[in-house]
Each structure stands twice: as C-alpha cells, then as structure tokens.
Amino acid sequence: MTATRTKVDYFRIRTQSSPIAVFTAFRKHLKSPDDWVLMPPEKGVDGWEERRAFYLKGQQPLAWVDYGGGSQRGWVRLTVAGSGCDYVADWAGVADLSESLDACTIRRIDLALDLFDGSASHESILAAHEAGRFKRFEGGRNPKMKKIEGSCKTDGRTVYIGARSSSRFIRCYEKGWQLCSKFPETFKTEDLRVFLPGAVDSVKVSDYYRVELELKAVDGALIPWDVLKAPDAFFAGGAPYLSDIVKSSPQRLPAAPELDSVIELEAMIQNCRIAYGGLFKAWSEIHGESDASKVQLFDEVMSDEPSERLLKNGVLMLQG
Asked: To the nearest whole number, what is the mean pLDDT of the chain?
C-alpha cells in the first residue's frame, strides 16, 4: 500500500452493537492488541449514562466507549483521541468495522498533515485565505477565519478556518512551538532544532507546521469508510489549499441527506430483531416458513399507523 502523508488524529464512530463488541472489534486493529483492557464503567459524559476507557498497560486511557441513556436510543459511541490514534496498526483495516458492527458509521475524523520544511507558515496560511484558497471547490463565500497571536512569536500562532459546528473545520498552527511550550524561554530561539520520533535528522522548530482537517457527519454530510483507505485524497478535498500542500487529487465528501433516515430505520429493525426475533422464530416453528405463513404473521403484528419517530426522521421519503 502506498504511504500516506496525512494521518488520522481523532476518530469517532457510533453503532448499535454492545460496548463489549465495540471493544473486541476495535482492539484487533491496535498495536499489541492483547495489552489492551476495557476499564470498569464510570459516569458518562455528553448525555451518555456510562463510559468505559480503553487502557494500554503503562499508558493513560487512549479511547472511550460511551453508552446508555434514554435519549441515546441504543447507540454506542467510540472516541479515539489523537494520542490513541498513534496506536492503530492499520487504519485501512479499521474500515472492517462497517461490517463487523451493527449500523456503524463514522461521525467525526480529523486528518493531519505535518510539514517540516517551512513550506507552510502562519503568514502563508493568512495569504492563502485572503486569496480564497480555503473556499469550497464548488465556490461560495470565503469561510470565516480566526487567528490567535500572542506577543511572543515562540508561543506559537494558530488559525481556525470555518465554523466549528459545520461538516468541515480547519486548524492550522505552529506545531513546533507547541511541542516546545514547556521549554525554558532561554532555549526557545529561532534556530532551535529538535529530534522527532522516527526522524533521521533534527527538525528546525520554526519550520514545523501542522494543518488539520476536521470532518463531521452533520449538515447532510456522509463520511465514507474509504476515508481510512485514502486519507490524503479526502484531506485534499477539504479545500484547494489543502490539495496544494498534500499534492493529491481531491476526494470530497458525498452529500447524504437521507443518511440519518437510513440509520434510524436500520436501528429500529435491529431493536425489533432483539425484542421479537424469538417470537418470529417460534411462529415459524409452529406454522412453517412459507411465504403465506410469514405474510400472516406480518399482518398480525403490523400497526395501523407508521412509527411517529420514523415519520419525524423522514423515513417514508426513502425510495424502496
């Protein structure tokens, strides 16, 4: 497989499978899978009833599975922090979760590009925004920009592009100075160099820059599992400037206005299977599995009105 320039720096999915099933399925794709354990339940966050951490021996918790709570309607959420993403052995293989877990979809993924040669900088990002290189490929308005600058350049400067709540949000910052934030001020000079893991030579701190693309499944956007197999292309699809710096043909997120309806329908089918699958099986044992028998059972249990919840989610607008 061709090496990629970008890396996954945050990963979140949701599924209708159990927390144990999520842990078991995801652990297979981690480095040293046998060294990972699922911690006991603790109080949940973000409206979830409970949370359990993924713990690697000798490390802090690096991923969490959230579940429970009436408003969550049976969903389970897996979140992998940036530090946890470094322990994934094969991101392309993680795409198998789409088949091994029930109704599993990517809700958020962050793709990061590190540049060490000074080819990107705070000034070049501002210039690119001014030139409209962060507009969407189809055009439209220049996205809003927020810049954070301190009185001391070695504190590191940051640029945010877009709305944090939208399906596309871009962060650009001086990663080298961030890494050296705890260094004594006397060490933080323009010529400071550091060694990074896996590097054969030192890197000039002032030349180390990071650009991150945060993609979220909101506003009708669908995050396909192919993003794990071709992260450079989807990073490039975030904006013309991102395509320029990663040197890849862009692959943009497909619009999926019907996605939530499909997921809702699949979730209710799964809940029905769990609650009434035994009843259906007992009926078939008594009356046989002919089409006529199944139609009779279907007529017996079908309600006079469609589910109000599915109506609100627009399921009846789907094409059969």
From this structure: 87
